[in-house]
Amino acid sequence: MGADIPGIVKLRCAVKNYDWGKVGDESAVARLYAKNSGEAVDSAEPYAELWMGTHESGPSYVVVPAEVNGGFERDGDFKPKHGNLVSLNDWIERNPSVLGDKVLKKWGPSLPFLFKVLSVGKALSIQAHPDKDLAVILHKQQPGVYKDGNHKPEMALALTEFEALCGFVSFEELKTVVHSVPEIIEVVGSSCADQVLNMCEVDGEKKLKEVLQSLFTALMSASKLVISEAISKLISRLNLKRELRELSVKEALVLRLEKQYPGDIGLIAAFLFNFVKLNPGEALYLGSNEPHAYIHGECVECMATSDNVVRAGLTPKNRDVETLCSMLTYKQGFPEILHGVPSNPYTIKYIPPFDEFEVDRCNLPQDASTVFPAVCGPCVFVVGEGEGTMRVASSKEVVSEGDVLFAPANSDITVETISGLNLYRAGLNSRFLDGK
C-alpha cells in the first residue's frame, strides 16, 4: 500500500429505489443515504437498499483527498472520473495489497463481499440465488438478467423486527398445509396432493424431496386461469373465516400479501414456507438454491459479491419458474437463527458458514472505546447512529451517521465515542482467515 493512501477511507455509496422499499424518511436507507451523499430525501420515493462494495450494479466510490493523486500507488496519469471520487473497484485493483495476501490468492484483486442496508416496506419476490456452477451458465445465457457468474450466499441481521419467508416447512407441517388449504389441491390436482398426504418419513429423504419438488413445480407452473380462480376462492374463504374466528399467523400474512400482490401465485406458495420473525440483533443466513422472500422490516445484509436473483412469485419483475423449481435443494425444516457471539462487551459477531463474509454489530455507550484487532482481510464499516472517531496507525477519521468506511487488511482499528455510537462491520469470515 502506498505511503500516501489513508489507512481508512470514506466511501460514497449507491442507493436502490426499488418499489418495495420504505418511502421517504420512514426508510433507514433514505436517512443513511442522505447523510452519506449529501442529497435530500425525496418524501415520495421508495428507498430500498444501500449498497457498499464493488459490484458494477451499484459501485461505491472512495473519497480521495484533493492533495492525494487519486489514491493510487502507480499509474501517475490516472485521473478520477468523478472529481475527488474514485471507484472502490479501481482503487483496489491499483492497490491490491489493501485486501491482504490470503484474499488476493483466493479471489484476486476484488472485494469478495457486498454489504447492504435494506428497508423493506412490502414483500420482496419469492426467490433463490444460484450456486456458482449455475450462475456461470445463467450469466452466459442471459447476461442482461443474470448480471455475473458468482454465487450469492447471504445473511440478514435485523435492525428492527424483521419478517421473512425462508425454506420449506417440515414434512409433517407440509402434510397439514396440503390437508387444510384446499386451494393447493385445486391447483396441483388430487393425484399430486395425495403423494404428499400418503408419504411417510420412512420413505427416505430423497423420495420426500422428489414429492415436494413435484408439488411445488405443479403449483408454480399452473395456468393463469387456474391460479386466478384458486386465489379468488382462497381470499374469499379467509375473509369469511376472519369474521368467525381468529386466523392463523400464516393466513393473516397471506391477506397482507394479497393487498400488495393481488392474484399472485405467491399467495398460495407462502403456505409452503417457514414464516420467520427476527428480533433486532438476530440473524438469518441463506445458502445457494434456498427459497426465501423478505416481507417487512429493516436489516443489514451481507453476501458474496453478486446480484443474481431467480424469481417466481410476489413480483412484477421477470420470472424464471422453470429455473427456480429445478435449482432448489428442497431442504425442509426451520432455518437456523444466529444470535451472535460476543467479541467484547460492546461487539457481537455473526459468523455464517460462508468464506466470503461475517458481520459485527457494535454498540458503544457514552465515553466508551473498543478495538477491532487487525485481521488479514479488508472490512467495511457503516455508522448507523451517533458519532465518534475511528483510528488506525496512519490516520484518524471523525465519523457519524451514514458514514461508510473501508479499512485495509492488517489494520488495528480503534473506535471511540463521547456521545455514543452504533456501527456495523462486514469482513471476511474469521474461519477462512484463520484457516479453519
Describe the protein in words:
The chain is globular, with a radius of gyration of 23 Å. With 436 residues, the chain is of the alpha+beta class. Strands 1, 6, 7, 17, 18, 19, 20, 21, 22, 23, 24 and 25 form a twelve-stranded antiparallel beta sheet that branches. Strands 2, 5, 8, 10, 11, 12, 13, 14 and 16 form a nine-stranded antiparallel beta sheet that branches. α8 runs antiparallel to α12. The relative contact order is 0.17. Helices cover 28% and strands 30% of the residues.
Rounded mean pLDDT is: 93
State the helical fraction.
25-40%
The tally of beta strands, per DSSP, is 25
Largest sheet: 12 strands, antiparallel
Q: Count every helix, treating DSSP H or I runs of 4 or more residues as helices.
A: 13
Question: What general outline do the C-alpha atoms trace?
Answer: globular
Structural class estimated from helices and strands? alpha+beta
% residues in beta strands: 25-35%
Using the CA coordinates, give the radius of gyration: 23 Å
Our measurement of the CA-to-CA distance between the termini, rounded to an integer number of angstroms, reads: 27 Å
Uncertain spans, ≥5 residues at pLDDT below 50? 1-5, 69-82
